[in-house]
């Protein structure tokens, strides 16, 4: 496959009637053919079924200061695990409610959940980073982030410390190789993983965005997904680009979207679904208008029809009781 670039415009907007502030965490639930995503800043989870795109279901935290960084599947198709400001909650679409069931051990007010996944063994891996208000006050992200593994019986292990923006992550299908993004190192890192000892080893760079996006000041790799053949699709925040990488980390193709702040990508059947952030995401006086499809299209979700089998790895299911 050649290193081609495919332009993606307004005709690929997935839901023309919806536009968020900081849409993230896009997830395909293969069991009921739905697409889920979060608006991190709004503390809101959204779901739409592919056979009824006119109706979007939403669940939102009812208290200020909350956020949701990631969502994962559970054994109930109407209940999802929501990685929230200070711990884990269940998002129940049957009763439209979010309920905490686990708080991080330090419950540090400085940190919030960012990206997370379930590994092939039913454990949650969740990254924490400096919260929005503090990074704004202090002039940036501090190297205080963490990556936790949380087991179904709620045992917690610190896997990585002192990260900046813990972001997109994935395991190969066997659970022996782990990919993890620290966005402000401009790198997707790859590790070997042994589940019996729960040890990460042999850390090495898999993809270094600064080498490929030299014209951008801060090309931050963001949310990603993986295929059954260990190919990676990753967004690169601030570059408008989704990059398709070989299992060796070489660029196979690029998708350039009319939105600078691409945030996350997932595979649903043979389509790519991409979330984006609005350019005015932190200006709460600004109206986020779904009718305005001019200029930067940040805040919209995009659906990219590739015309080929993508062989996406199915999202694993949380092993805990719901």
Automatic annotation (TrEMBL):
Pfam families: SGL (PF08450). The keyword Kinase does not apply. Residues 22-277 form the SMP-30/Gluconolactonase/LRE-like region domain. The active site is at residue 222. Keywords: Metal-binding, Zinc. InterPro entries: 6-blade_b-propeller_TolB-like (IPR011042), SGL (IPR013658), SMP-30 (IPR005511). GO terms for molecular function: calcium ion binding; gluconolactonase activity. Binds 1 divalent metal cation per subunit. Substrate binds at residues 112, 114. A divalent metal cation binds at residues 24, 167, 222. Its cofactor is Zn(2+). SUPFAM superfamilies: Calcium-dependent phosphotriesterase (SSF63829). Belongs to the SMP-30/CGR1 family. This is SMP-30/Gluconolactonase/LRE-like region domain-containing protein. It comes from Candida verbasci.
């Amino acid at each position: 496959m050649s290193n081609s670039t495919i332009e993606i415009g307004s005709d690929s907007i997935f839901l023309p009637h919806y536009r968020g502030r900081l849409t993230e965490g896009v997830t395909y639930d293969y069991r009921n053919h739905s697409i889920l995503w979060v608006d991190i800043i709004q503390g809101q989870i959204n779901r739409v079924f592919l056979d009824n795109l006119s109706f979007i279901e939403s669940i939102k935290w009812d208290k200020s200061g909350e956020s949701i960084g990631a969502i994962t599947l559970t054994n109930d198709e109407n209940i999802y695990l929501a990685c929230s400001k200070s711990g884990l909650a269940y998002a129940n679409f049957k009763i439209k409610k979010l309920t905490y069931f686990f708080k991080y051990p330090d419950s540090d007010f400085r940190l919030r959940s960012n990206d997370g996944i379930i590994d092939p063994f039913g454990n949650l891996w969740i990254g924490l980073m400096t919260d929005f208000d503090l990074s704004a006050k202090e002039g940036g992200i501090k190297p205080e982030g963490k990556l936790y593994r949380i087991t179904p019986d709620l045992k917690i292990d610190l896997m990585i410390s002192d990260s900046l923006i813990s972001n997109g992550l994935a395991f190969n299908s066997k659970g022996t190789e782990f990919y993890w993004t620290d966005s402000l190192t401009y790198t997707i890192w790859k590790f070997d993983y042994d589940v019996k000892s729960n040890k990460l080893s042999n850390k090495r760079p898999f993809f270094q965005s600064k080498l490929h996006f030299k014209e951008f000041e801060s090309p931050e790799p963001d949310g990603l997904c993986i295929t059954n053949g260990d190919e990676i699709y990753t967004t690169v925040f601030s570059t408008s680009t989704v990059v398709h990488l070989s299992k060796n980390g070489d660029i196979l193709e690029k998708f350039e979207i009319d939105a600078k702040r691409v945030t996350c990508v997932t595979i649903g059947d043979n389509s790519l679904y991409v979330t984006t952030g609005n350019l005015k995401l932190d200006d709460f006086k600004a109206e986020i208008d779904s009718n305005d499809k001019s200029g930067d299209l940040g805040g919209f979700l995009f659906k990219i029809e590739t015309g080929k089998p993508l062989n996406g790895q199915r999202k694993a299911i949380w092993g805990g009781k719901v």
